[in-house]
Amino acid sequence: SMNTLIIIPSRLSAKRLPGKPLLKINGLSIISHVFQKARDSNIGEVYVATEDQEIADDIKKNGGEAILTSNVHKTGTDRVFEALKKIGRTDIELVMNLQGDEPLMKVEDIQNLQKQMIKFKSNIGTLASKIDDKKIYKNENIVKVITEKNLEISQFPFALNFLRKFDGNEQNIYHHLGIYCYQLETLKKFISYKQSSNEIKYKLEQLRALDNNINVNVALAKSSPIGVDTKEDFIAIKKIMEYKS
C-alpha cells in the first residue's frame, strides 16, 4: 500500500451556513464526525487543516490532530498543500483531501478510492454515486460529474466534465462527492497553476485540473451522501445520523 495522508480542509466562514463545521449532531461537531470517518478508514494519518482556532480546538478536544493554516487560501486544495508542508513528512506518496462537510461518507468508499488510485496509478481520483432523484440535476449545490464510460465498481474512468446544473440527456452523469486523492507530484503541479477561468466561473476547483490537462479518474461510491450546504441539508443529515445511533 502507498503511504497516504488524509487532510481535511475546514473553515468557519461558509456563506450559506455560518459556523457549519461546528454544528453538532449526536453531541459531536460535523468536522469531528468527518475526522472520525477518515480515521476509521485506516489508510493513513489524518489531519484537519483550518484557519480557525475554534475548529482546531474542537478537533483536538475530540482526539484528533489539527494544523493551523493561513486565511488567504482561495481553495481547499491550497489549504491542504500548506498543511502538508507544515506536517513535513517526506515519505508521503498519496494525499487524500476529504471535504469537511460530508459526515455521511462511507469508510469503504474512502478505502476503495485509495485502492483504485494504486491499481490504476492515477494522478487524481475522486468519487461519484448514481443519481436516483431527478431533482439533483437542477440543484446547483450538488455537483455532477460526466464520465467517459459507465461507472462500475471495478472501473476508474476519466471525468469529462464537472457541472452544477445539467439540462442534457442523462448518459454517464453522476453525483460527485467531495473527496480527492492526489499523487504527491500531481498535487504540487495542481497548486502551482493559477485558478482557471472555468474554476472561477463555476466555483469548482477540480476544473483547474481538467483545464490544465490533468486527468481525474472517478470511482463509484456505494453510498450517495448529501453534503451539508444549507440549513435544510443540516436538518436532514441530523435526522439520518441521530436515527442511526
Q: What's the rounded overall pLDDT mean?
A: 93
Q: Distance between termini?
A: 33 Å
Shape: globular
Query: Tally of extended strands?
Result: 11
Outline the low-pLDDT stretches.
Answer: none
Helix-strand string: EEEHEHEHEHEEEEHHHEH
Largest sheet: number of strands, sense, barrel closure: 9 strands, mixed
Strand content: 15-25%
Helix share bin: 25-40%
Q: In terms of structural class, how would the helical and strand content be classed?
A: alpha/beta
Tally of helical runs: 8
Could you characterize what this model shows?
It is a single chain. The chain has 245 residues and is α/β, with parallel strands linked by helices. The protein contains eight helices and eleven strands. The chain has helices spanning 30-41, 53-61, 76-87, 107-120, 184-192, 197-202, 206-211, 231-244; strands at residues 4-10, 24-25, 28-29, 44-50, 66-68, 94-98, 124-129, 144-147, 159-163, 173-183, 216-220. The strands form two sheets. Strands 1, 4, 5, 6, 7, 8, 9, 10 and 11 form a nine-stranded mixed β-sheet that branches. It has a two-stranded antiparallel ribbon with strand order 2-3. Strand 2 and strand 3 form a beta hairpin. Helix 1 (30-41) packs across helix 4 (107-120). The longest helix has 14 residues, at 107-120. It is globular. The chain starts with a strand and ends with a helix. The model has no long low-confidence stretch (mean pLDDT 93).
